[in-house]
UniProtKB/TrEMBL annotation:
It comes from Coniochaeta pulveracea. This is Uncharacterized protein. It comes from the Eukaryota.
Length: 249
């Protein structure tokens, strides 16, 4: 627990040239220094990565779009800052809502020891009853709120405002490419989803590209599905790029 009694939901990890840092108050994502990023195994030179700085600007735009055109809870755009730090690295920082925990970290303890444990102070360690509540809550949120709301967002151009991660094709449903437990914040008191975060890979794409899996193992299985990959490659190779578009509610 933190000094003020809050659950210490802290972590830091690197992924695709980015550093992700969670504290009890903020979620910050910033680019690695160029000489510390991944390298090409054959040439040992720094790998060419997607445009990180542009993707962070894009993520801010995604939050604004979801806040303005859907009922999906996301961080208030006013709580988001972005730019360059003192070392010249691009970053995006989001102020976390009070009393929230990452869904992926919520399984580490019991959130209702008064009801689930023999002692109100016995909160350490996983709790099967809390885990079941979290599972049902998150799945209901995705199935009944996120996916239906995204289907309302339609466009005749791919990506968002001309920026696409990954490259363009012509279908037009708004898709969250990295929808998982680690990108959902739960209200710790009632174990309901409070907000969706880390949306830099969102945009208008074929509806088939929208994945939702509860566990990381399921997601990795989808990523390794060669037949699915061939279908997506077919969508990419057969679809011409359209040039005019917009969204409707």
């Amino acid at each position: 627990m933190d000094d003020d009694g809050r659950f210490a939901d802290h972590c830091r990890y690197e992924s695709d040239g980015r550093i992700h840092e969670w504290t009890s108050d903020t979620f910050t994502k910033y680019e690695l220094p160029h000489d510390q990023g991944p390298t090409n195994q054959e040439t040992t030179r720094p790998s060419i990565l997607p445009p990180l700085r542009e993707s962070m600007v894009h993520e801010v735009n995604v939050y604004r779009l979801l806040a303005n055109y859907t009922d999906i809870p996301v961080p208030d755009p006013k709580s988001i800052s972005s730019g360059f730090d003192a070392a010249g690295r691009a970053y995006i920082r989001i102020e976390r809502m009070e009393k929230t925990v990452r869904a992926s970290a919520a399984f580490k303890r019991c959130w209702m020891p008064l009801q689930h444990r023999s002692s109100p102070s016995d909160a350490d360690g996983p709790c099967d009853r809390c885990a079941l509540t979290i599972h049902r809550s998150v799945d209901e949120f995705v199935q009944c709120t996120v996916l239906p709301e995204l289907r309302w967002l339609r466009s005749r151009t791919t990506g968002l405002d001309g920026f696409v991660v990954p490259p363009q094709w012509d279908e037009f449903v708004f898709v969250l490419h990295d929808l998982g437990l680690e990108h959902l914040l739960l209200n710790r008191l009632i174990l309901r989803v409070a907000a969706l975060v880390n949306v830099e890979e969102a945009g208008y794409f074929p509806e088939e590209m929208q994945w939702w899996t509860f566990g990381r193992a399921e997601l990795e299985a989808l990523c390794g599905d060669e037949d699915l990959a061939r279908r997506h490659i077919g969508l990419l190779s057969l679809s011409p790029t359209l040039t005019d578009g917009g969204q409707e509610r």
